[in-house]
Structures are given as structure tokens and as C-alpha cells.
């Protein structure tokens, strides 16, 4: 079994959203290099399997949010409750006792999406021709061995 080493990451804590309303959240960057022990027990550096990490990004984000929420609630003596934001999708954990009207009042991004029929387009997104995509890489036949 290979030895395990901690990951290197940076977390940036934000206390409000783009419109200045309160919204405690973090952004995390994970270094794509990790140290492990080779067969001789010597430390070597290697790359993370980013494909596997990407496939599990929602689960990783959920675990991180759970840890942050647990820490905040324990420190402040609060509790969380699930709240259905979009029917049929997983619920969002909210601080128990906060009125839904207050939550909706501060949810400016959701209001913007509702009023525009989707996500508001940024200038670069508007400049991008609709439907244009990168061409797929040409498929090559495997060479005979």
C-alpha cells in the first residue's frame, strides 16, 4: 500500500454574493500535484487523476460544505434544515429559523434567472456565436502492433 500525504489547497472565504447580499461561501483551489511514497518508501511527486476528481466534484463540494456548515453551526450554536429550492433536485441546507422571505429576498441570482428566463449572459457569452462549438478531435485508428 502506498503512503498518503495531505493535499495542498487554498480556500477563499466570501461573506456576500455578487450583489452584496449576505451569503457565506468558500471557493477552493486544489493543487494538481500530490506527494506519495514510491515502492521503496521514498517520497515522489505526481499528478492527481483530474478526470476522477472532476467526476466527483459535486460530492467533494457537498462534503466541504457539510464540514464548513458543521463548524459554523457548532461555533454559533445553530442548526441546519433542508430546503427544497428546485422541485426534484437535492435540497439546499439552510440555517434553521431563518424566514423563507429573508432567504428569497437575498437570492438575487435566482430572481435574475427567473426574470430573464435563464442565466444572464455576460459580454463574452453574448459575443460568442450561438451554437458554435469546438470541433471534435479526429478519431484515429489504433496502429497494428
Automatic annotation (TrEMBL):
InterPro entries: TrwC (IPR014862). SUPFAM superfamilies: Origin of replication-binding domain, RBD-like. Residues 131-145 have a biased composition (Basic residues). Residues 106-145 are annotated as: Disordered. It comes from the Bacteria. Residues 120-130 have a biased composition (Low complexity). Residues 8-111 form the TrwC relaxase domain. Pfam families: TrwC. This is TrwC relaxase domain-containing protein.
Amino acid at each position: 500500500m502506498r503512503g498518503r500525504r495531505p493535499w495542498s489547497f487554498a480556500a477563499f472565504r466570501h461573506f456576500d454574493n455578487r450583489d452584496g447580499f449576505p451569503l457565506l461561501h468558500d471557493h477552493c483551489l486544489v493543487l494538481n500535484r500530490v506527494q506519495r511514497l514510491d515502492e521503496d518508501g521514498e517520497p515522489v511527486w505526481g499528478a492527481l487523476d483530474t478526470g476522477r476528481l472532476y467526476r466527483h466534484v459535486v460530492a467533494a463540494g457537498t462534503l466541504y460544505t457539510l464540514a464548513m456548515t458543521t463548524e459554523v453551526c457548532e461555533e454559533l450554536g445553530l442548526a441546519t434544515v433542508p430546503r427544497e429550492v428546485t422541485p426534484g433536485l437535492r435540497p439546499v441546507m439552510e440555517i434553521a429559523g431563518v424566514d423563507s422571505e429573508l432567504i428569497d429576498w437575498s437570492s438575487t441570482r435566482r430572481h435574475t434567472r427567473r426574470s430573464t428566463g435563464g442565466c444572464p449572459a455576460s459580454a463574452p457569452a453574448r459575443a460568442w456565436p450561438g451554437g458554435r462549438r469546438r470541433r471534435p478531435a479526429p478519431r484515429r485508428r489504433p496502429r497494428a502492433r
